[in-house]
## 1
Amino acid sequence: MKKNVIPKEGVYYIYSIYQQILPELLVRDLTKLFYDIEMPLIPCLYRMEKRGIKIDIQFFKQLTKELEKEIFSLQKEIYQLSGIVFNLNSPKQLAEVLFDRLKLPIPKGKERSTASEVLIELLPYSPIIEKILRYRELNKVLTTYLKPFPEMCDENQRLHTYFDQTKTSTGRLASLSPNLQNIPVRGELGQKIRKGFISEEGYLLISADYSQIELRILAHITEDENLIDVFLQDKDIHTTTAAKIFKVKEEEVKEDMRRFAKMVNYGLIYGMSDYGLAESLRLKKEEAKEFMENYLNSFPKVKEWREEVIRKAKEEGYTKTLFGRPRYFPALLSPNKTLYEQAKRQAINAPIQGSAADIIKKAMVEVDRKLIENRFNIGLILTIHDELLFEIEKERIEEAKEIIKETMENIYPLKVPLKVNIGIGKNWQEAHS
DNA sequence: CTCCCCTCGC
DNA sequence: CTGCGAGGGGAGA
Ligand SMILES: [Mg+2]
Ligand SMILES: [Mg+2]
């Protein structure tokens, strides 16, 4: 709920809007979604925004100081190595330095670009590249997180985001001003930044993260026996998938095989084709095709479902999530092949991503209600798509943990269990399990 | 102001 | 030719 969005005069129209949307809700069978999920979510989100999350301002400022020192010397070294002073933040100028002035090659299969993916390929050609990559990493965290956040805090060193309930096409929430759904987590620097998000004195943070919620939803929707089996036995989905793709025993699955399977699993959720898979993994077409076939034979209903969801979306014009949330796809009638193919991928993804959003929203309403009912002092403070973050008084941590886990895992029973991993700590890094 | 490039998260 | 977002900053209007 962003500040000042409702003008005084606007309130006048709410009843007339209600009169218009009620019949619309009824004919589209959306009353449950509206009254059981989205409406109760509004006060819940408002409380989360009001509670905010505490950051260690001194820690942010100290880290800023250290990284600014490093970034300044990086900048100097980059200008030295390139023999020219230019604006490092300008991809256009940087491309001119790298590809025209220093005559570095454009990797085959890639466009002329300074994206990190391209720069990594250029690492062997010049010592300037690693410095640019590090500069980018530091500049990103400094300008997006470390420098702005201390300025945005309230008098209690707490940051308050806004959750936008209407922004996304799938039903997810969006977080803005600041966005607290894209706080760095990967790598040493990400872990360090997360240590700056802390609990109040006498409190701890609890992170509750749905394990593989989208793949569990895929298992539920497709009713694929093998996929369901993996989750009923609580096996590692990526390891199991790797074993099936490569036709080896699960004990023989190596780390890179598991990583590959993970990409395949997510690729399927995102509507990826075998061509796209081959491309992203730089595989020979035949290999990718064989792995893809092994996958589809292992989880046959996934392929059937992907075709069925597209067929239905063409016929009816929309897809639906578990809770009946529609997403419309006019582009499925487009003569433009690019738009058409894109719409097909979106139509595969929307029911999965959107159903995950349905489930976590329902869990939020329910957990928030229970924690308030039981007189917890702070409670739910953030949602990051499949994770809920809570701030709870130390003495009642175990009590809260039980309520949270039990509520989230049983909020909407599927044909496979929903599993929630809980972590506890005095900062987000410790709590994020 | 908008568009684009780039990079952070799930 | 893998989905959904936010946001910093450059470039050009
Ligand atoms: Mg998770
Ligand atoms: Mg997560």
## 2
Amino acid sequence: MAARMTRQRTAVVEALDELADFRSAQQLHETLRARGESVGLATVYRALQALAEASEVDVLRAEDGESLYRRCARREHHHHLVCRHCGRTVEIDGPTVEAWASKVAAAQGFDDIEHTIELWGTCADCRAASAG
Amino acid sequence: MAARMTRQRTAVVEALDELADFRSAQQLHETLRARGESVGLATVYRALQALAEASEVDVLRAEDGESLYRRCARREHHHHLVCRHCGRTVEIDGPTVEAWASKVAAAQGFDDIEHTIELWGTCADCRAASAG
DNA sequence: AATAAGGTGAGAATCGTTCTCATGACATCG
DNA sequence: CGATGTCATGAGAACGATTCTCACCTTATT
């Protein structure tokens, strides 16, 4: 249990707090650079990793495999509806789905069930932008 | 629309037909090598890519980001319950979940919805094996 | 201040995947 | 049967995200 509060970690957390949407480690690094906070890329990765382990941030994989990070409002288990264009995110929960998932898995004799349930789409703003 | 049927592509398809579980491109390459079919790794990737585009194989991302491929029995939309240890796969469908997903997305004004719903677990055999 | 336990960062190293490009296989045309 | 155009192949280079290395700083703690 490390977790020393350093300038760099503080910067990463603050950046996450200000950005509402899912961002990649590299985007965050770029953001920090742009605002003058000098933080190494490796450090950004390490900070995000630590935060993810502590459940301080949510991680999900973009369709191309890149990991995206976000500081979610709710700490409890939930899922996301993410705009694949701008990263805009809506937190959703689905008790129905949770129940369905564990029932199905148990029926097949599987243990240690985890599920990946994410919704991707185009948000209203991005649709308007591309249609306009 | 290419799709010339070559020795290599045939070999990849046959290997997939014999393997019931999700496999990575590298695993397939290794399998082919082992049985004496000489096929380049790049070719395996290309064949899998073409098959995936033609919806001949299903692709999903392992938890570590690696792509896994499988020739599924049903061509229609469905999901999977996959053993994270041996790749053993059960095809599942969830009309409930489909309905839920599109309802939620529409309620938020999102378009072009796609969803990722996969279940990961430890199958009975792998549990028995690790339990001794 | 001294020190121990971490943290940092530049660049090297990984690893899956894709690209390059010279060569090979095929079907068609003559 | 051989020439031709087209696509496929494969060895290795290139890529891109992520992780590791390691010498050097920071942050608590005494």
